[in-house]
Amino acid sequence: MEFLAPTxxxxxxxxxxxxxxxxxxxxxxxxxxxxxxxxxxxxxxxxLGRVTDLTDWGLxxxxxxxxxxxPYRRIIEELKDKAPGLGMAARTVGSPQIRNRGTIGGNxxxxxxxxxxxxxxxxxxxxxxxxxxxxxxxxxxxxxFLGPKRTAVAPDELIAAVLVPPADGPQQFAKVGTRNAxxxxxxxxxxxxxxxxxxxxxxxxSAGPVPTRAxxxxxxxTEALQQDGFASRSGRGDVALPESVVRRFGELVAAAASPIxxxxxxxxxxxxxxxxxxxxxxxxxxxxxxxxxxxxT
Amino acid sequence: xxxNCVVNGEPRQVDNVWPGESLLYTxxxxxxxxxxxxxxxxxxxxxCTVYLDEVPVCACLVPAGQAQGRRVRTxxxxxEATQLDPVQRAFLExxxxxxxxxxxxxxxxxxxxxxxxPRPTDEDIREAxxxxxxxxxxxxxxxxxxxxxxxxxxxx
Lengths: 297, 156
Ligand SMILES: Cc1cc2nc3c(=O)[nH]c(=O)nc-3n(C[C@H](O)[C@H](O)[C@H](O)COP(=O)(O)OP(=O)(O)OC[C@H]3O[C@@H](n4cnc5c(N)ncnc54)[C@H](O)[C@@H]3O)c2cc1C
Ligand code: FES
Ligand code: FES
Hints:
The complex is a heterodimer of chains A (about 300) and B (about 160).
Chain A: E1 2-4, H1 9-18, E2 23-25, H2 31-36, E3 44-47, E4 57-60, E5 63-67, H3 72-79, H4 84-91, H5 96-101, H6 104-110, H7 118-123, E6 127-132, E7 135-140, E8 145-147, E9 150-151, E10 158-164, E11 171-176, E12 187-194, E13 199-205, E14 212-213, H8 215-228, H9 243-256, H10 267-292
Parallel strand pairs in A: 1-3, 2-3
Antiparallel strand pairs in A: 4-5, 5-10, 6-7, 6-10, 8-9, 11-12, 12-13, 13-14
Chain B: E1 3-7, E2 10-14, H1 23-30, E3 49-52, E4 55-58, E5 71-73, H2 86-94, H3 103-116, H4 122-128, H5 140-152
Parallel strand pairs in B: 1-5
Antiparallel strand pairs in B: 1-2, 3-4, 3-5
Bound molecules: flavin-adenine dinucleotide and FE2/S2 (inorganic) cluster (FES) (2 copies).
The site of one FE2/S2 (inorganic) cluster has 10 residues of chain B, from loops.
């Protein structure tokens, strides 16, 4: 095994082109679990920890740009107002030690159906920037996940950054697990209300081969809110969401999942829990929309 | 592969490091620092917690090569001469140590908590310690130790 330790982005891309089998390592919280257990024996490790382009965030056009190696701790401390859904999800990851090291790019790179960053990125229409010596390409996050632990990253590519449109309405994330820390999601759910543009996004994690948007549920809720809520903006403080709408939204979210039975839970439990998470997060998001205007909480 | 880094204030060099090796292995097996414990090698238990550039991490999940040129601080590096760190003293006084396997990792985690937050609430403590498992104490004495350390000391 070789250990490649480029210090510039150009050198990192050149190394990945030369050694397409090299396994990139950022925080190591997935890679080292594989190596320690003997499951993973790559020909080379490609350390991204010294490439400073990857460890910073900033603004890029209309986007918030997170370098692939920004760790959860910084997302929580520095970005929870700009990307609230992602911030909430980051807070639920692992433990403080894992959040100190684990990165958003590593979460995407692993491409687990249970990755906690994925549902919040799906509901904010995030864009993933991939790069290689051949050039740079940007793809919508909806096109990133191809199957369990299979992603759109080509063998000679690295994930450069995640581009997140700034939140323009309440966002929520919730996950079910056996304790409050250190749990892989049994299922997870993210929601974004975008009153200005009059639409809703909902996404499901850990209840199918890939994290996925719940399109039918989104469409139902968008239409319901256009009738009752978003449309009557001036009077919205008085508009409570009808229980029938909340319940139907939960049912449609549950129906959008394609869960399996596994050690963490049964398919039936996952569907039930998703409907509960969907209703709960919708109530929270709606309360913050009513209570504080369009600001996100 | 060579590795150069500063461990507990001393520059160290080790040779023949396997590229897939964890920092935990290097510390314990090559540097003679067995304080950090190896229990799960999966990031689940926190018994291997060390400071890497003053940030607490699971040493079992850090490829040793990533420590090149960086500063590592382990439980062995907290005491000054014969004077234990206030967090270590609090663990002894509170009876927070039974088999002791979880203790070194917890000491680092608590040391870090009190540096960032000298007066933590019980909720802060629970959240900060969520990544450190103890199979013996039932945690109550550990919480006592953290409260004691917070009350008694200005932690460096
Ligand atoms: C104890 C424990 C608890 C955990 N809890 C959670 C949890 O609650 N929720 C959750 O979602 N995850 C959890 N994880 C998994 C892991 O922490 C996350 O997936 C994390 O985001 C991985 O980031 P990393 O930087 O450590 O990745 P690494 O291990 O460094 O890399 C992960 C994968 O991504 C690839 N990769 C990394 N960076 C790039 C890049 N820039 N370009 C291309 N490929 C790249 C690597 O080659 C590898 O395949 C947990 C892990 C542990 C050990
Ligand atoms: S040995 Fe590192 S977390 Fe358990
Ligand atoms: S004292 Fe034995 S594991 Fe904590």
